[in-house]
Each structure stands twice: as C-alpha cells, then as structure tokens.
Amino acid sequence: MEGLAQDYRLQGNPVAEVPVVGSLVYDGLGEAVVRKFNERLKGVKGVECTQKLKSGDVISHSNTARALGFNQILREETGGDIHVLSPEEVVQYWDALPERGSTYADTDSIVIYPTEGPNESLRQKALGIVGKDFRKSKVPLIVSGLGIVKDSSEDTGFTFTETGNILVREAPYLQKDGNVQYDAKKGKLNSSEEGVRVWTPGSQNGLRRLYRNRNDGLVAWVDDLLGASEYGRVQVLQDPKGLGEKISELSADLDRKYEADATKLAERHAEAQRHLRTGQI
C-alpha cells in the first residue's frame, strides 16, 4: 500500500499549489483502505463497510467510526500525507470542499463535553487517553486522531484506541451556537461574527460526533456516532510532507516580517518629522 500512497494523486480541488481536498474514492488507495478497515471491524454492525462499491465510486455512508478508522489507516500507510479533514481544515478550506451543498462529512475528531452524558463509556475512554491535563477541563474538548478497535461491550461495537496522531485542544467556541473563522497564524478556530456556523448541544454533556452538514456548518451536538446515509462523504486532504503547513508557516513569517518592517518605517518617519519640527536629531 505504501507504493500506492507514494504515487497517489487525489482527485479534488487544489487550495493552493498544495494541498488538495477531495472525497475518498474506491480506487487503488480507497479499495485498500476499505479492505483493511473491514479486516479490523468485520461483523460490527453500522461500522463495517457493507456497501457494494465499484471501481471509481465515491465512498459514502460516512459516520464517526468510519471516519476515525479510515483516518487511522490513511495516516499509518501514507505517513500522514493523506488524512481525513480536521475541523480546522474544514473551515480553512471551506470554499474548496467538493459537493459541499449536497453532502455531509465527518471530521477526524470527536467532541468531549465537560459533564456526563450520551456515550459516557466512550467519553471516559477518550478522557483516559487524552491525559490528566485535560480530564477536568471546564470547556468542550476536540480530540482528533483517535483510532478504533472492536469492543462488543460497547453499544457501538467499538472503542477508542491511542495512536501517534492524537491532538487535543480546548474549544470554548463550542459552548454555544455561533460562528468560527480559521486563524492561520495560530492554526486554530476562533469565535467570530461571520464565518462558518457551529451547532452545539444546550446540555453541554457527553461525547458527540463532529461533522460538516452540507452548507449549514459544523455540527457538534449529535450523539449518534453510527448514523450514515448515501450523502455521507469521507473528505480528505493530500498534503505531501506537510507542504501546505510549510506554506502557511512561510506566509505567517512573511506577515510578521512585513509588520516589523512597517513598524520600523513608521518609527523612522516619526523621527524625520520630529527633526523637521525641532531641528534636533
């Protein structure tokens, strides 16, 4: 599968020179991902992929388990060059998302709210994985990069497992419905007057899925982790060796340099004006 990943070219929308955003297709890479996923989750209702897929079909019926499992396999096999979109990437590349108005797509993340609630056993499992620094957080947590394994003791038929790609961050913008924008300099989402809408549970409890629902924004209140339909997509990013991140870092560096240069020019201008007025240097 590594050979496939090295030569693979995602069919999708470029968001700069790189990366490219697209929906996972049942081609060489997509077929290998589905096959490996089904080997791990065989027989788990609502999780195993049972759709009849032909070569070239867009892989549908996304849900939390499938998005996390596919992301886990893609990252393992491509070294992170191809992965399921994070919530931040969904907002950052909003205008480039294929079929945005007619589909939904789960992200690589789940939301842990501060108090007990739906999917509590999985919530406790996720809290155990993220570490003590986050276990008593008073605001919602977004956790990306969890893996999944079979677990017949769970109603969902699966549980979370630790991977080398887990990322945890507090998400105060999920405390109530609102809008978010992507802050390129800090690489995170912030509340804003405009931007992409986020939808949250008033109860602020339990563990919830985190997905894009058509053009309506990011949904963070649904507790059904296995719900799926033909309109679901597995939307991924191809970013060879993190070139997109490097371009963002370079852009931020240039912005900082521009700001520093502008400050120096303003200071010199002020000194020149003072010299003209007073004759003093």
Notes on the structure:
With 281 residues, the protein is an alpha+beta fold. The chain has two domains: 237 residues, no CATH class; 40 residues. The chain has seven helices and 15 strands. Strands 4, 5, 8, 9, 10, 11, 12, 13 and 14 form a nine-stranded mixed beta sheet that branches. A four-stranded antiparallel beta sheet has the order 1-2-15-3. A hairpin with a 4-residue loop joins strand 9 and strand 10. Helix 2 crosses helix 3. The radius of gyration is 22 Å and the shape is globular. The N and C termini lie far apart (69 Å).
Task: Identify the notable features of this structure and list them briefly.
four-stranded antiparallel beta sheet; single chain; 15 strands; alpha+beta; 281 residues; 2 domains
Task: Provide a short characterization of the protein structure.
The protein is of the alpha+beta class. It has seven helices and 15 strands.
